[in-house]
Design a protein that fits this description.
Radius of gyration: 22 Å
Helix content: 40-55%
CATH superfamily of the largest domain: ATPase, nucleotide binding domain
Largest sheet: 8 strands, mixed
Number of helices: 15
Bound molecules: adenosine monophosphate
Number of domains: 2
Order of helices and strands: EEEEEHEEHHEHHHEEEHHHHHEHHHEEH
Number of strands: 14
Distance between the termini: 26 Å
Strand order of the largest sheet: 5-4-3-2-1-6-8-7
């Protein structure tokens, strides 16, 4: 089954086309349309064994962006489809499913209405995701669409983990609670790492660390998320590229008064000017900081130390939440690639039963690999994530079920 996976941002859209079957999958093409809404939008497209295709042209909205994608997918030179009818389903990444969605769903009018209701919770992302869904419905009305949510995996958190200790009426009135994000990635690497390490996902106690520009840590028991570090928004939790992570609310009110910042100013500060960027004063990119640390730049060293310390605190907290831990999993751009950050995090976890293989960790990047010594009580793995594959797999499963149900009711 050929599946188009779409991830629509506010002014961009990422896509992949995958050939999916229950036991196998092949990536046929992937690409990115950037600067949607501008006269010099840019469409980059890549298929295996060919130079990448890149053009700048005006693209005024997501419908035009998707049209550009569909055109290149059937292009004689760069295409991977003879005809668009080969696309059997479309899977969309949707940022926020609120309390409505515990799992991925086939898109219908009711689902669209609920995603619309969650726009208030993810004002930058959900409207863009919806634009992609609506554009696809217009361009390929007969092709089933599936929505896969960043939040749904964490809907299994118990109430005492997701509540904030605020007046309960704010939860009732605005749904102010912790939701968590990166759900597709945490679920994917938990399943993959258990398979690789020979653990039973249904019984294992796992701490998954998705570390990238945005980072979150999740406690997983029996394959279900029981707590995660991101909250009402993706700002909560550990230090990130440009996001502050946890912050005393008193700092916010202090800065509002001292610097005359309003809500937009604070939003900008904690989302765009903080984290590794804020502490180091020169970069949000982990690679730059590791290089700068080697050259003796103290604030780069401090930024990395703060990041690792935050992660370590969550690991300790989640080991307590889970009453033990069987495996710690690193993923995301930093988790998969930064031996320095993994080394900093895993130094001093012996009390927990971690016997980390520092020599093996050194220089290891971008592969699925066990980083603990064979006899370590707690296993440590680095595992590559693939959120698009989760979206394609959920889409295939849901659409296959729909097709089977339709065939059955025809037979009856
Ligand atoms: P992501 O948001 O998952 O794409 O991750 C982006 C982050 O991964 C950035 O901070 C990068 O610096 C980091 N990253 C990517 N490659 C490497 C690498 N080889 N070594 C260290 N960090 C890396």
């Amino acid at each position: 089954m050929k599946i188009l996976v779409l991830n629509c941002g506010s002014s961009s859209l990422k896509y992949q086309v995958l050939e999916m079957s229950p036991n196998d999958n092949t990536l046929l093409a992937k690409g990115l349309v950037e600067r949607i809404g501008s006269p010099n939008a840019c469409h980059t497209h890549k298929i295996d064994g060919k130079d990448k295709y890149q053009v700048e042209k005006p693209i005024s909205n997501h419908t035009e962006g998707i049209k550009s994608v569909l055109d290149i997918l059937t292009d004689k030179e760069y295409g991977v489809l003879k005809d668009l009818s080969e696309i059997e389903a479309v899977g969309h990444r949707v940022a926020h499913g609120g309390e409505y969605f515990f799992k991925s769903v086939a898109v219908d009018e009711e689902v669209v209405e609920k995603i619309e209701k969650c726009c208030e919770l993810a004002p930058l992302h959900n409207p863009a995701n919806l634009t992609g869904i609506k554009a696809m419905a217009k361009l390929m009305p007969d092709v089933p669409q599936v929505a896969v949510f960043d939040t749904s995996f964490h809907q299994s958190m118990p109430d005492y983990a997701y509540m904030y200790a605020l007046d309960y009426s704010y939860y009732e009135k605005y749904k102010i609670r912790r939701f968590g994000f990166h759900g597709t990635s945490h679920k994917f690497v938990a399943e993959k790492a258990c398979k690789l390490a020979g653990l039973d996902l249904g019984k294992a106690k796992l701490i998954t660390c998705h570390l990238g520009n945005g980072s979150s840590i999740t406690a997983i028991e029996g394959g279900r998320s029981v707590d995660t570090s991101m909250g009402f928004t993706p700002v909560e939790g550990v230090t990130m590229g440009t996001r502050s992570g946890n912050l005393d609310v008193g700092v916010v009110t202090f800065l509002m008064e001292k610097e005359g910042l309003d809500a937009a100013g604070i939003n900008n500060l904690v989302n765009k000017q903080s984290g590794l960027q804020g502490i180091s004063g020169f970069s949000s990119d982990c690679r730059d900081l590791v290089d700068a640390e080697k050259s003796g730049y103290k604030r780069a060293e401090l930024a990395l130390a703060k990041l690792a310390y935050d992660i370590k605190k969550y690991i300790g907290a989640y080991a307590a939440v889970l009453n033990g831990v069987d495996m710690i999993v690193f993923t995301g751009g930093i988790g998969e690639n930064s031996d320095r950050v993994r080394e900093l995090v895993c130094t001093g976890l012996e009390y927990l039963g971690v016997d980390f293989d520092f020599a093996k960790n050194n220089g290891t990047r971008g592969v699925d690999v066990e980083l603990s010594k064979p006899k370590s009580k707690v296993k440590v793995w680095a595992v590559t994530t693939n959120e698009e594959l989760v979206i394609a797999t959920d889409t295939m499963n849901i659409v296959t079920e729909m097709q089977e149900r339709a065939a059955q009711s025809e037979n009856n």
